[in-house]
Amino acid sequence: MTFSQQFAQQIIDGMAALTLLISFSLLAQHRMLSVLRWFAGQGLLLAATAAVVAYSTGETELYISAMMTFLLKGLLLPWMLWRVIRKLHVHREVEPLMNSGITMVIAVAVTLFSFHIIQPIEVTSELLTRNSMAIATACVLLSMLMMITRKKAITQVIGFLAVENSLFFAAIGATNGMPLVVEIGIAFDVLIAALIFGLFFFQIRNTFDSMEIDTMQSSLIQKDDDE
Amino acid sequence: MMAVLSLHMALGACLSMVIAAVAAPCLQSNPTIQRIALSALLAISGLLAVVAGFTGLISGGGSITLPLGLPWLPMHLRLDALGSFFLLVIGSLTLPVSIYSYGYLSHEKKLTPLAIFLPLFVLGMMGVVLSDDAFTFMLYWELMSVSSYFLVTHEHQYPENRKAGFIYLLMAHMAGLLIMGSFATLYAVSGSFEFSAMREASISPLWASVAFLLAGFGFGTKAGVVPMHGWLPDAHPVAPSNVSALMSGIMLKVAIFGFIRITWDLMGSGDFQWWWGALVLAAGSSSAVSGVLMALQQHDLKRLLAYHSIENIGIILIGLGLGMLLAHFNHPTLAALGLIAALYHTINHALFKGLLFMGAGAVLHKTGTRNMEKMGGLIHRMPWTSGLFLVACISISALPPFNGFVSEWLTFQTALMAPQLGGALLTAMVPFSAAMLALAGALAATCFVKVFGVVFLGHARSEAVADAKEVDMWMKFGMVIPAVCCLLLGLLPTLFIPLLDHVPQALLHTSMLSSLHNHSWVWLTPMDAERASYSAPLALIGMLLLGGLAFWWLHPKGNHIRRSKMWSCGNPHTHARMQYNAASFSQPLRRIFVDLYQPEEHEHAERHKHALLTTRVKYIVHVSDMVVKQVYQPIGHATLWLAKIIRHEHQRGIHAYLAYTFATVLFLLAVFA
């Protein structure tokens, strides 16, 4: 392993650590806008990681995906979500389902668990990015945890998008990125999903006068009973 | 040559059922031809099965591999002694039922479903006894179960029929699952679906016990062993009577066949653990007594007969259980006797229970009711049916000279001749089961005195019964055949047992022929003449002599019978409902066994002005099956309760679903990573 490769690996490992940190902060935030900010930060970091991997491995296709990630996940999606939040006036995420202390403890346990299960793979892998596999797995699980523990529909959508981000990160880590065609496809899927979510938020607010899932559910059940 | 011929005849029997099932929808436009084709093909099939069974028992059968079924598992068929015997049982009832059906179905409006599923049902039963690999066995077994479900729900316009059919289907599938588990155990040990490989594989005691328990509970459910009998008293009465005759007469026996096939044949002959025999003996004793006790309290004629099927399956199991115990304690000859007693009772029960259901069907056909409280006096209107029904009543009550006595006597002999077996429990158990058998026999006789007395004697209790007519010649002829067979099997057991003896020869490699050969055909001596012997022909002659003498003494010549009005205790009005009826006849037994029955009684008297001037008394008694109440209903409630909880879980929010997904992902990672 040459010096520059070692250096690149150091950088990638550092970025992976930052990604994990962001996942934790996403989980810990209470204010909607700061959640969004951290989410945008995760997207930018992802783009940077892709660029570094592209530089160190010399795969030009990865530059394109880094560019796409930067535009889509770093700028476009956060901007769309920000617009939704501003229009719906849901700045504060009130009362998460679970006490944040307990959530953090669970999150640490989940992270340790993913390091534990990824260990046998890391031993056999020869990729530059092998250390990031465990972190990517942890990030997927943490984003899922975020979806479970939050009440508002918007935070759940952010959790969903964060799962997608982590999967992208795992793809870079495990295989130096997926084929470009696949990546473009996924990017468009995510974009369209976000558009649909955005439309739904407005519809839901008009129908239920609330963005809380429990309220939607109870009014649905009431409707069933009325029928 | 003979061997191959008998197998080919068995295949011919199956083929004619296939033709019948295929032809039925094509002949839909002409019901008469459809009925003729159904009866004729059933009769051909039954006849071929009887001949194949006989020749298979005498000469041993062949085996054949048909290029049907799964690509890597062709259909293995084989006709051995055990299969031949059960094929004989199937054929000997299918033949009379086919003739009976021609008359019974003459007014049937929905003939096509019957004409399709009845042949498939018979085909399923024949296939089970012929099959030589587990896959073929299960295939035919399920064919039998499913087609009989459609026969049970034939009159599906009534909700209770649909309910009975559902319970039947549910329990038949549970039974099928357990049996499949038993075969799976044997497959895991032997590595092959073929029976020949399963026979040769050596199985550890633990896995043998697992296979035995699965087979026992699976086949026991299908045979209606207490407490897995819940479906039986509901399903048998609602099926058309010719189907009830086949279901009770031979379908339950096919379950017995499966049990013998797995435990006596596939798991190594005679290699039983002691508690297997004890368990079968206990199940048999409890089935025999509780079946007949419940039968006593029924007033639906076919339901009563259904409970008697449970009793008789119990008697068969007592014989099998004794055989298994004796084989374990190394008394092969006595074990062979137990097996022969069980098999003898199998064919006997097929014949007389088939006859009883056909008789009940004749009554139902002509009066339109199954309720015994509305019958009475039918002996004057349906003399043939009454006489033939009486033959079956005597046979099932185990009275000489008919066949029921022979098989129950052989079972008794097995129990009485059993030497002391190891342990106090077993020592007590064998005589206890004999006592239970005696009790069941006595109660069965009581029950059939009630049936015959209430249904055929006395005066008619309703208009429809008073106007009943005798059945047509086809139904009569269909009932005559099993009645004659009952008498022949009762009179000539010494000629039939050598045929049966091929089964223990094949399964246990012992025979009880030696003791039979020492004596003439008149005397049946299971072990040696000093200990026990029975001669049916001499018993018949003695009975005829005594009966003739008694008649001559009571009715000397010239003593004319004087007919006059009945004395009615000074009451000017007599009414048919003043007779003893089914509920009142069984009242003493309801008192004796009050703890077992726990009857719900309601009494209501209407009085006119004064406490003594009673105008009307209403008495309702209802005896429900305690097992159904104590076992089935709690299971049903628990299932519903569980379903409610799960339904509640289903209605949880999106967070719960996300949490399930999360937990599943973690679990899968932990397990597979």
Description:
The complex is a heterodimer of chains A (227) and B (673). Chain A is mostly helical. Chain A has one domain (3-226). Helix content of chain A is 84%, strand content 0%. Chain A is built from eight helices and no strands. Chain A is globular, with a radius of gyration of 19 Å. The mean pLDDT of chain A is 80. With 673 residues, chain B is mainly α. Chain B folds into three domains: 2-189 and 204-529, no CATH class; 580-622, no CATH class; 627-672, no CATH class. Helices cover 71% and strands 5% of the residues of chain B. Chain B has 28 helices and four strands. Chain B has helices at 2-26, 31-59, 81-104, 111-130, 134-152, 159-190, 195-200, 205-223, 232-238, 241-266, 274-296, 301-328, 332-367, 378-381, 383-396, 403-417, 424-456, 463-466, 473-491, 493-500, 502-508, 513-517, 536-554, 582-585, 587-592, 594-597, 626-650, 654-672, and strands at 63-70, 73-78, 600-607, 614-622. In chain B, the strands form two sheets. A two-stranded antiparallel ribbon of chain B has the order 1-2. A two-stranded antiparallel sheet of chain B has the order 3-4. In chain B, a hairpin with a 6-residue loop joins β3 and β4. The radius of gyration of chain B is 27 Å and the shape is globular. The mean pLDDT of chain B is 89. Chain A binds chain B through residues 97, 110, 113-114, 117-118, 120, 137, 141, 144-145, 147-148, 156, 213-214, 217, and chain B through 653-655, 658-659, 661-662, 665-666, 669-670, 673.
Quick summary:
The complex is a heterodimer of chains A (227) and B (673). Chain A contains 8 helices and no strands. Chain A is an all-alpha fold.
Strand ordering within the main sheet of chain B: 1-2
Poorly predicted spans of chain A: none
Computed Rg of chain A: 19 Å
| Total beta strands of chain A | 0
Total domains of chain A, how many? 1
Q: How many beta-strand runs of chain B?
A: 4
Secondary-structure content class of chain A: mainly alpha
Q: Cα distance, first to last residue of chain B?
A: 62 Å
| Number of helices, where a helix is a run of at least 4 consecutive DSSP H or I residues of chain B | 28
Number of helices of chain A: 8
Structural class assignment of chain B: mainly alpha
Fraction in helix of chain B: over 70%
Mean pLDDT of chain B: 89
User: Helix share of residues of chain A?
Assistant: over 70%
Largest beta-sheet characterization of chain B: 2 strands, antiparallel
- Rg of chain B is 27 Å
Quaternary structure: heterodimer
In total, how many domains does the architecture of chain B comprise? 3
Shape of chain B: globular
Tell me the strand percentage band of chain B.
under 5%
Largest interface by Cβ-Cβ < 8 Å: A-B, 17 and 12 residues
